[in-house]
């Protein structure tokens, strides 16, 4: 038996060539034995008909928003019911001015990608403008650096709108820490030391909601809270003087400003919600009748249409 020696570079080269040829022949044999794939590639749909209900809803809401904003600009703005928590904003700031104490505003503990934080910054602008008119001091410790920058811009714009640019004090709006309970400890100690006369909690809150509200209650401050977190609303309702619940919190900007564009948009949103509620009620009623009366085939088809219209 002949042994192949791999000491020579020439022998190594020929061995590599032989192995490559064997591998190529094996792959060619396997490809020849495999069945031919005659399936044609699927054609991409340009228009998905299953998304027609979604398109209809988008166009309907866009059209209603345009119509209601146009009506509001022509002096036919909708009437918004009285919200006690928003009516008490001026009272709380006036109380702080009379007592010579600051106003504490906490815009939640989330970043600017949370819609509740955006709503809280909007409320901060309204509170800052009233405080500038009353010559009161607003302090807003934040839990996120980006929220601090947004809060500073909102307060500065409010002071300029009130004709009091000198009332803007950027050092009153500072960043504390991203750590939840580190932030809570700082704010709680600040409340006990400075004893603000009015405390506003507007934004997204979690376990710290009860700590803030109980601390404010202990120092005798008037407290106004607003959040969309249903798990924290009971604590605010129990410990605060006024609470904005869910949709009231998001409607606060339109309520306080009275701008036609915001009022028209708010009316369009309510119209869309009303339409969805009507579709749900109709679907429930039709499905119930179709179940009780099996012979009513048309009702079953109509129920399927309503379900598809709602995106089901």
Task: Give your account of this protein's structure.
The protein is an alpha/beta fold and 312 residues long. It contains 13 helices and five strands. It has helices at 9-33, 52-73, 84-87, 89-99, 115-134, 145-161, 180-194, 208-218, 233-239, 247-250, 252-257, 260-292, 297-309; strands at 103-106, 138-139, 198-202, 222-227, 242-245. A five-stranded parallel sheet has the order 2-1-3-4-5, sandwiched between helices. Strand 1, helix 5 (115-134) and strand 2 form a beta-alpha-beta unit. The longest helix is centred in the last third of the chain and has 33 residues, at 260-292.
Summarize the model shown:
This protein is an alpha/beta fold and 312 residues long. It is built from 13 helices and five strands.
**Strand arrangement across the biggest beta sheet:** 2-1-3-4-5
* CATH-level-2 architecture of the largest domain: 3-Layer(aba) Sandwich
Low-confidence stretches: 1-7
**Class computed from helices, strands and strand pairing:** alpha/beta
CATH fold assignment of the largest domain: Rossmann fold
Arithmetic mean of pLDDT: 84
Distance between the termini: 76 Å
SSE ordering: HHHHEHEHHEHEHEHHHH
Percentage beta strand: 5-15%
Number of domains: 2
Helix content: 55-70%
């Amino acid at each position: 038996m002949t042994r192949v020696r791999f000491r020579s570079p020439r022998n190594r080269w020929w061995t590599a060539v032989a192995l490559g040829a064997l591998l190529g022949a094996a792959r060619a044999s396997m490809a020849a034995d495999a069945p031919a794939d005659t399936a044609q590639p699927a054609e991409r749909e340009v228009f998905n008909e299953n998304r027609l209900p979604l398109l209809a809803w988008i166009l309907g809401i866009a059209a209603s928003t345009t119509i209601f904003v146009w009506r509001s600009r022509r002096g036919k703005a909708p009437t918004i019911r009285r919200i006690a928590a928003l009516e008490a904003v001026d009272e709380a700031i006036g109380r702080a001015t009379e007592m010579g104490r600051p106003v504490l505003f906490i815009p939640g503990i989330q970043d600017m990608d949370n819609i509740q934080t955006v709503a809280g910054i909007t409320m901060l602008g309204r509170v800052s403008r009233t405080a500038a008119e009353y010559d009161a001091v607003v302090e807003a410790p934040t839990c996120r650096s980006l929220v601090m920058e947004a809060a500073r811009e909102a307060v500065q714009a409010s002071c300029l709108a009130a004709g009091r640019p000198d009332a803007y004090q950027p050092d009153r709006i500072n960043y504390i820490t991203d750590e939840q309970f580190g932030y809570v400890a700082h704010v709680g100690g600040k409340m006990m030391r400075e004893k603000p006369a009015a405390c506003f909690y507007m934004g997204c809150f979690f376990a710290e909601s009860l700590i803030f509200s109980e601390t404010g209650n202990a120092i005798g401050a008037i407290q106004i809270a607003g959040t969309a977190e249903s798990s924290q609303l009971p604590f605010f309702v129990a410990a605060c003087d006024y609470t904005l619940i869910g949709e009231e919190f998001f409607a606060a900007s339109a309520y306080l400003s009275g701008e036609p564009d915001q009022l028209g948009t708010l009316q369009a949103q309510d119209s869309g919600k009303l339409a969805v509620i009507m579709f749900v009620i109709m679907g429930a009623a039709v499905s119930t009748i179709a179940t009780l009366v099996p012979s009513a085939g048309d009702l079953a088809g109509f129920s399927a249409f309503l379900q598809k219209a709602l995106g089901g």
